[in-house]
Amino acid sequence: MSRRCEISNKRYNNANRVSHSNRKTKHRQQPNLQWKRFWLPEEKRWVRLRVSTKVMKTITQYGLMATIKRYGADASVIRK
Q1: What's the total number of domains in the chain?
Q2: Interhelix angle for 64-71 vs 53-62, to 10°?
Q3: What is the CA radius of gyration of the chain?
Q4: Can you give the pTM of this predicted structure?
Q5: Considering only CA atoms, which of 28, 65, 70 is closest in space to residue 49?
Q6: pLDDT of amino acid 80
Q7: Is residue 76 part of a domain?
Q8: Is residue 4 part of a domain?
Q9: Most buried residue, 16, 50, 68, 71, by most Cβ within 10 Å?
């Protein structure tokens, strides 16, 4: 399973680690993904999603369905 947010599709970022002597080595910066349960009032059930913490804050502010629409994600994400 890839480390990717199910709503925003946020994934790893390629970066460099820079040593004191200024040598650069490739490095991956992983997103901060968490498993979280969200209440879906339209269907009166819980939905378990793997989302980034940024998306968690957005869901808290706007709600789950509004956030899915805001990020342009496919609504089939919550049909598990």
Answers
A1: 1
A2: 120
A3: 16
A4: 0.84
A5: 65
A6: 62
A7: no
A8: no
A9: 68
- 5's CB contacts (< 8 A; 6+ apart) are 11, 31, 33, 50, 51, 52, 55
Range of the domain at 30: 13-71
Integer Cα distance of 29 and 4 in angstroms: 12
pLDDT band at 5 (very low <50, low <70, confident <90, very high): very high
CATH code of the domain covering residue 57: 2.30.170.40
Phi, psi of 76 (to 5 degrees): -70, -10
The C-alpha angle 65, 71, 77, rounded to 5 degrees, equals 55
Are 9 and 40 a contacting pair, CB within 8 Å? no
The CA distance from 65 to 39, in Å, is 11
Q: In the structure, what pLDDT confidence band is assigned to residue 19 with cuts at 50, 70 and 90?
A: very high
The structure tokens 């706007």 sit at 62
First-residue to last-residue Cα distance in the chain? 16
Residue 78 is assigned to a structural domain of this protein: no
